[in-house]
C-alpha cells in the first residue's frame, strides 16, 4: 500500500488526506486489498474501496472539524446520508448481484446518538472514538462489511466502477491483488488487466497547470494519458476533456478502448489536430474551400487555423487537454490548442518521445516546447511492452546513437533517445540477418515467418513485417515497388496477410500477418516483428558532418528504425543486405546486439 501514500494531487476529489495516509500504514495489506479514489457513479467520489475476503466497503474520509460539526451537525449528517442513499439507488440500477457497504470516517468528531439518523450513525459512520479502536485493532472494521461476493461477479463489478485502472491487454500482470478479466463486448472477447499500484498512483496524481511526460517507447504514456482522462471525466462529469493525437490510427484506437471500457464517456472528445480544427470550422461556420483543400492542403488548412484564432473569441471550452504523440506537433499547433483551456484550474498534459518523431522535420538543436512553462516534468522509464532482450537491445541502440551524435556535436544535451527499464523477466531473441540481395532478403523474411509459426508457436496475427516505404524511386530513375514484391512472395508461400492502415488498431481482430511501412505501423505492437529493406532509407551516413541539416536528416531515419524496433514485444528480426561499411545505421544496430 506504500505506493498509494505517494499520491500527489491538487484536485480536491483526488487529494490524499493525512488520515488516509495514516490509515494505509495501519491496515494489513497481506489480508486486504484497497483501490484508491474510486468514483463508482457520477456524483459519488469515495476515497477508497476496501476489500477483504471478497467483501466490499466504500470509505470516505471527512475532514470536518469538531467546531464545524457542532454548528452544522444535522445538515452534514443529512448530506452524508443522501450520498449513501444515492449509492444504493445507483447500485440497484446496475442490477449486479453485489453486496457492499459505504461508511464515512470522521476522525476529528465525537458523535452523539441522533434519533433521526440512528441507523446511519450505527452502520455507516465511524467517528473519532470508533476510529481509534479500529486503528488499534483493524479487525474491528470487519463489522461494517456485508456478505461475501462471488469472485467473478466482484471482478466484473470492479471493471465496471474502476475502468481507468485497467488496460485492454494480457501481456503483463503486475497487480496480483486483482484478477485479469475476460469479457465479451459486441461479440468480441477482450481481456482487461489491472494496472500496477504504481501506475494507479500515477493516474490519480493529477495537478493543475502544465505537465510534461517524457519517456521511451513502451513506457505506457498513452495508457497513463487515457486513464487520467477517464478518471477526470468520472470525477468531473459536467466538464469536458479533449485528447489530441497526431495519427488517425491512435485516435481510432483510443475511441475503441473508451467504447469498451467506459461507454458513458460523453464528456471526452478525441481528435487528431486536423480533425479538431475542421470540427471547429463546421461548428463556427468558418470559411472552408474544400476544392482548395485538395489542391493546396497545407496553405488552406493554415488559413482555417487563422480564422479560428480570430473568430472564436471564447475558446475556454475544456477543463483538461491532453496531447499524445506531441513530438509530431509543431510549436504553433500546441500554442493554438492551449487557447481552448479554462483560464484557471485547468489541466494541460503533454506526452512526448522525440525519437518517435517520423513525420515532422527533426531539429535536435531546438526545443520546440521551451516556450511552455511546465509546472511539472515527469520521466517514465519502465518498459511495459518488451521482453528483457528487446529492452537491452533498444537501450544499447539508444546509447550508441547518443555517443555517435554527441561525438559530432558536443553542445547537444538531449537527443531524445530514452533508455527504459525492463520489468518483464522473460528473455526472447533479437537477430540481425545479413543477406546478399533483395531476392535473398525476401526469402529470409518468409523463412523467419515459418520459424515463428512452427518453432515458436506464434499465430500469423501476432507477426508484423515492417519496411520503410511501400515503394522507392531508385537513382536509375526506376521505381521499386517493394510492397508488391513482398505480397507476391507471401501469396506464393500461402501466408495470409493484411495491410496496416488507420482503422487497424491493437485491439482489432487480425486474420493474417500485418505488412506495413513505418508510418502505418506507428501505433501498433506485435509479439514478433521482422524489419527488412532498411536499404530504402535515404540517410545511412552523414556525408558532411559540418552540416546540421545532414545530422537532422540522419536522426530522422534513426527515428524510423527506433520506431520499428519498438513495435516488437518478444521477437525481433532485422534482415539487411547492407553492412557496417556501407551504413552507419546498420553499424549502430549490429553494435547494439
Structure write-up:
The radius of gyration is 27 Å and the shape is globular. It is α/β, with parallel strands linked by helices. Helices cover 37% and strands 19% of the residues. The strands form six sheets. A six-stranded parallel beta sheet has the order 11-10-12-13-9-14, with helices on both faces. A six-stranded parallel beta sheet has the order 17-24-23-18-22-21, with helices on both faces. Strands 1-2-3-4-5 form a five-stranded mixed beta sheet.
Give the low-pLDDT segments.
none
Number of helices: 17
Strand order of the largest sheet: 11-10-12-13-9-14
Question: Rough shape?
Answer: globular
If you compute it from the alpha carbons, what radius of gyration comes out, rounded to the nearest whole angstrom?
27 Å
What is the oligomer described by this structure? single chain
Average pLDDT for all residues: 92
Quantity of strands, as a count: 24
What is the strand content?
15-25%
Largest sheet: 6 strands, parallel
Beginning-to-end CA distance, first to last residue = 39 Å
Helix content: 25-40%
Structural class: alpha/beta
Structural topology:
Layout: H1 18-26, E1 33-36, E2 48-52, E3 55-61, H2 66-94, E4 101-105, H3 118-124, E5 125-126, H4 128-136, H5 151-161, E6 166-168, E7 181-185, E8 188-194, H6 197-204, E9 209-215, H7 221-235, E10 241-245, H8 248-261, E11 268-272, H9 273-283, H10 290-295, H11 297-311, E12 320-323, H12 331-338, E13 347-352, E14 376-380, E15 382-383, H13 388-408, E16 421-422, E17 430-434, H14 438-454, E18 463-467, E19 472-473, E20 479-480, H15 482-492, E21 497-499, E22 513-517, E23 526-532, H16 548-565, E24 568-576, H17 584-592
Parallel strand pairs: 3-4, 4-5, 9-13, 9-14, 10-11, 10-12, 12-13, 15-16, 17-24, 18-22, 18-23, 21-22, 23-24
Antiparallel strand pairs: 1-2, 2-3, 6-8, 7-8, 19-20
Amino acid at each position: 500500500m506504500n505506493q498509494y501514500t505517494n499520491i500527489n494531487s491538487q484536485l480536491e476529489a483526488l487529494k490524499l488526506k493525512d488520515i488516509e495516509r495514516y490509515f494505509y500504514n495501519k491496515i494489513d495489506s497481506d489480508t486486504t486489498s484497497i483501490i484508491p479514489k474510486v468514483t463508482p457513479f457520477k456524483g459519488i467520489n469515495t476515497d477508497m474501496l476496501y476489500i477483504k475476503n471478497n467483501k466490499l466497503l466504500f470509505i470516505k474520509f471527512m475532514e470536518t472539524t469538531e467546531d464545524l460539526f457542532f454548528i452544522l451537525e444535522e445538515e452534514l449528517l443529512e448530506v452524508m446520508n443522501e450520498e449513501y442513499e444515492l449509492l444504493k439507488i445507483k447500485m440497484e440500477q446496475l442490477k449486479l448481484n453485489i453486496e457492499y457497504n459505504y461508511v464515512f470516517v470522521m476522525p476529528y468528531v465525537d458523535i452523539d446518538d441522533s434519533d433521526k439518523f440512528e441507523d446511519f450513525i450505527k452502520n455507516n459512520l465511524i467517528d473519532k472514538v470508533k476510529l481509534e479502536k479500529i486503528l488499534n485493532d483493524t479487525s474491528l472494521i470487519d463489522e461494517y462489511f456485508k456478505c461475501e461476493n462471488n469472485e467473478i461477479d466482484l471482478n466484473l463489478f470492479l471493471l465496471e466502477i474502476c475502468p481507468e485502472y485497467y488496460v485492454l491487454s494480457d501481456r503483463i500482470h503486475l497487480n496480483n491483488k486483482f484478477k485479469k478479466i475476460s469479457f465479451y463486448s459486441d461479440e468480441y472477447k477482450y481481456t482487461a488487466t489491472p494496472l500496477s499500484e504504481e501506475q494507479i498512483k500515477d493516474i490519480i496524481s493529477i495537478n493543475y497547470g502544465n505537465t510534461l511526460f517524457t519517456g521511451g517507447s513502451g513506457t505506457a504514456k498513452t495508457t497513463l494519458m487515457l486513464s487520467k482522462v477517464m478518471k477526470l471525466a468520472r470525477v468531473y462529469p459536467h466538464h469536458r476533456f479533449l485528447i489530441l493525437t497526431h495519427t488517425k490510427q491512435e485516435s481510432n484506437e483510443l475511441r475503441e478502448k473508451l467504447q469498451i471500457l467506459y461507454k458513458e464517456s460523453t464528456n471526452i472528445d478525441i481528435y487528431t489536430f486536423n480533425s479538431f480544427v475542421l470540427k471547429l470550422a463546421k461548428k463556427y461556420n468558418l470559411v472552408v474551400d474544400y476544392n482548395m483543400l485538395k489542391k493546396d492542403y497545407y496553405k488552406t488548412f493554415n488559413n482555417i487555423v487563422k480564422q479560428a484564432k480570430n473568430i472564436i473569441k471564447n475558446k475556454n471550452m475544456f477543463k483538461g487537454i491532453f496531447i499524445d504523440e506531441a513530438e509530431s506537433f509543431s510549436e504553433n499547433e500546441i500554442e493554438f490548442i492551449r487557447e481552448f483551456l479554462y483560464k484557471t484550474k485547468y489541466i494541460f498534459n503533454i506526452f512526448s518521445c522525440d525519437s518517435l518523431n517520423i513525420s515532422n522535420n527533426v531539429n535536435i538543436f531546438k526545443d520546440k516546447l521551451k516556450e511552455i512553462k511546465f509546472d511539472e516534468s515527469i520521466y517514465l522509464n519502465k518498459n511495459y511492452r518488451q521482453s528483457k532482450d528487446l529492452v537491452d537491445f533498444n537501450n544499447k541502440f539508444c546509447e550508441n546513437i547518443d555517443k555517435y551524435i554527441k561525438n559530432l556535436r558536443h553542445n547537444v544535451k538531449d537527443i531524445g533517445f530514452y533508455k527504459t527499464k525492463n520489468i518483464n523477466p522473460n528473455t526472447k531473441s533479437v537477430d540481425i540477418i545479413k543477406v546478399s540481395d533483395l531476392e535473398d532478403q525476401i526469402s529470409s523474411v518468409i523463412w523467419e515467418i515459418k520459424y515463428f509459426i512452427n518453432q515458436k508457436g506464434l499465430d500469423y496475427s501476432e507477426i508484423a513485417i515492417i519496411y520503410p516505404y511501400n515503394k522507392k524511386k531508385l537513382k536509375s530513375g526506376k521505381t521499386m515497388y517493394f510492397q508488391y514484391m513482398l505480397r507476391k512472395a507471401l501469396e506464393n508461400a500461402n501466408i495470409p496477410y493484411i495491410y496496416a492502415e488507420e482503422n487497424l488498431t491493437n485491439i482489432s481482430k487480425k486474420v493474417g500477418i500485418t505488412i506495413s511501412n513505418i508510418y502505418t505501423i506507428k501505433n501498433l505492437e506485435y509479439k514478433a516483428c521482422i524489419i527488412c529493406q532498411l536499404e530504402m532509407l535515404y540517410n545511412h551516413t552523414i556525408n558532411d558532418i559540418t552540416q546540421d541539416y545532414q545530422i537532422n536528416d540522419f536522426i530522422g531515419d534513426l527515428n524510423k528504425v527506433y520506431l520499428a524496433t519498438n513495435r516488437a514485444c518478444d521477437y525481433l528480426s532485422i534482415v539487411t543486405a547492407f553492412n557496417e561499411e556501407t551504413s552507419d545505421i546498420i553499424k549502430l544496430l549490429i553494435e547494439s546486439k
